[in-house]
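Collaborator request log, item 7. Partner lab (contact: R.S.) asked for a structural prediction of Protocadherin gamma-B7-like to inform their binding assays.
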Amino acid sequence: MNIFFVMSAATTSGLPPKIEVKENQKNGTVVATVEVTGNNFPKLTLVGDDILKYIKVVDNPSCINTASCNKFDLVTVKVIDREKVPNGFVEFTDGSGKNCILIILDENDNVPVFGSQRYKATIPENITVNTKIPNLQITATDFDENPSLKYSLIPAGQNSKGIEDYMKIEDKYNGSITVVKALDYETRNFFEYTVQVFVSI
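Returned to partner:
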């Protein structure tokens, strides 16, 4: 009896350790092309179900009329929103034991939102100049990852004339307001300002 053994080549991989793509890619966009080499009918599959809402794996057009495709496209099926993708990354496997992480890069595409539409504080007229107003912290939030917000203070309303030099936000990355000029209740007992916040790019 003759016994023949047919040895198949082990699957090797051209899969990179990571791929980075920007969020907000339109539906139908090829965000990456990955090639897997070897003779064991290579494949590329997603790890995890949630990302199937955003990306699918398809054969690259170069694979038309071929028995086994080793090149794959990662295509969006829905606009990618970084804030809604679990963990901010997608994991793929090619069957060789090697995985690839597709990282969704965050963009500043959300408008900062203040914690309150109106802030109010009462301070003594003899408050020391260059003192931050206690118990008053203007805060805004941005759903983008690690946003850098800049604050500014401008006079507002009918009581705003001539108050430019009394209070300031000295640290533009912090919403604390500092009294920078001596106050006099008899001269002025009400101040109204508008706080603006911008995303620093």
